[in-house]
């Protein structure tokens, strides 16, 4: 499926991180890609992140998964919402929804959350710190958007949910299957199911905080240090007051710290590994039977292609006119001129048919086999 009535350049210029946008009939022939029973089944799996929000006399209650199947089958008439994260990692048809949004760089895309709800179900007025596209898959949902919020916005007292104490409705729409709403970071919004059988897809984007970036990069720098220079002052002269820390000392100490983190090559490699790190690293996607190079060559020669595992993130940076560093699942791989084009195609294409030259290349095949055995690539029939 492709987006229609949507111009990505116009959207980025006028709406992205600026204001909400509603798009009616956003898809060319919308067909809901997944059955609600499949989504509910995922919520019962140990490795899948899920939440059940129920309305009760005291407000909203939150239960974290994994869910018990009989618990979901016996939900009463009171309003409820089941939220299941990263459904795109487990159902390829849901992963396909991401493709039209790749005008935003891949590393910024987080996952596709699916919410199921009965009449009146919702999570309450809240705001997110990231961009989100809300696609109505089945049934109807009423969406309201409101004021701009930040860390100082008052919240209701709740141990688990960050619900706004005040919600100033500015726009009000009912979305039907195939409709889509974009909500920028910090904009208050509230979605409520209108009738039973409501299914909504939320395509969320990553927005790392400065504190998170600093913490991860500092750890990386410390682990990679081979030398640890110490402060020195061979040109020290007597100062007027022994208790004073002179401005020149402060500048020198700050420069020591900045120099330790200012290597652009080191930062680029860290950034690629950070940006492609797995959302759920504990899930094992490795194949039951590891492949050898000869086994892979045989499969590719028979017309097989390789497909990226939706659970694995791919990216690259150019290090010269003919070479790149490929990043997959938080690890980096040097790719010379012989492999660079293939590495970039693996990042761009969901399914990649390797050329005869790539199949004959020892270094290219070593990389493909390695990624296959790590669960980052799988074999599929070529188109």
UniProtKB/TrEMBL annotation:
Entries under InterPro entries matching the protein: JmjC_dom, NO66-like, ROXA-like_wH
Cofactor section: Fe(2+)
Top-level taxonomic group: Bacteria
SUPFAM superfamilies for the chain: Clavaminate synthase-like
Signal peptide residue numbers: none
MF (Gene Ontology): 2-oxoglutarate-dependent dioxygenase activity; metal ion binding
Keyword line: Dioxygenase, Iron, Metal-binding, Oxidoreductase
Protein's name in the database: Cupin domain-containing protein
Organism of derivation: Pontixanthobacter rizhaonensis
């Amino acid at each position: 499926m492709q987006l229609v009535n949507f111009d990505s350049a116009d959207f980025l210029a006028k709406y992205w991180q600026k204001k909400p946008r509603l798009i009616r009939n956003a898809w060319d022939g919308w067909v809901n890609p997944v059955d609600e029973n499949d989504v509910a089944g995922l919520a019962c799996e140990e490795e899948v992140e899920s939440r059940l929000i129920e309305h009760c006399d005291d407000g909203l209650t939150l239960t974290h998964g994994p869910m018990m199947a009989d618990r979901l089958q016996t939900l009463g008439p009171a309003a409820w919402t089941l939220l299941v994260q990263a459904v795109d990692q487990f159902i390829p048809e849901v992963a396909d929804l991401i493709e039209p949004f790749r005008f935003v760089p891949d590393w910024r895309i987080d996952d596709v959350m699916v919410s199921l709800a009965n009449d009146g179900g919702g999570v309450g007025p809240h705001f997110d710190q990231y961009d989100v596209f809300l696609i109505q898959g089945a049934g109807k949902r009423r969406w309201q958007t409101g004021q701009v919020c930040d860390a100082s916005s008052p919240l209701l007292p709740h141990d688990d949910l960050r619900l706004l104490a005040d919600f100033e409705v500015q726009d009000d729409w009912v979305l039907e299957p195939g409709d889509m709403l974009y909500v920028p970071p910090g904009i208050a919004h509230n979605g409520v199911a209108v009738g039973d059988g409501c299914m909504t897809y939320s395509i969320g984007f990553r927005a790392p905080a400065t504190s998170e970036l600093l913490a991860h990069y500092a750890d990386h720098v410390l682990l990679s240090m081979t030398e640890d220079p110490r402060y020195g002052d061979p040109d020290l002269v007597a100062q007027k007051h022994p208790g004073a820390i002179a401005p020149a000392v402060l500048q020198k100490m700050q420069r020591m710290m900045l120099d330790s983190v200012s290597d652009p090559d080191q930062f680029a490699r860290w950034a690629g590994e950070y940006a492609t790190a797995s959302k759920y690293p504990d899930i094992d996607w490795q194949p039951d039977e590891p492949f050898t190079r000869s086994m892979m060559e045989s499969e590719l020669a028979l017309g097989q292609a390789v497909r990226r595992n939706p659970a694995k993130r791919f990216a690259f940076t150019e290090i010269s006119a003919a070479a790149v560093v490929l990043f997959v699942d938080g690890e980096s791989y040097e790719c010379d001129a012989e492999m660079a084009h293939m590495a970039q195609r693996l990042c761009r294409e969901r399914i990649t048919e390797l050329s005869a030259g790539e199949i004959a290349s020892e270094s290219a095949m070593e990389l493909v086999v390695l990624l296959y055995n790590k669960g980052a690539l799988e074999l599929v029939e070529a188109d």
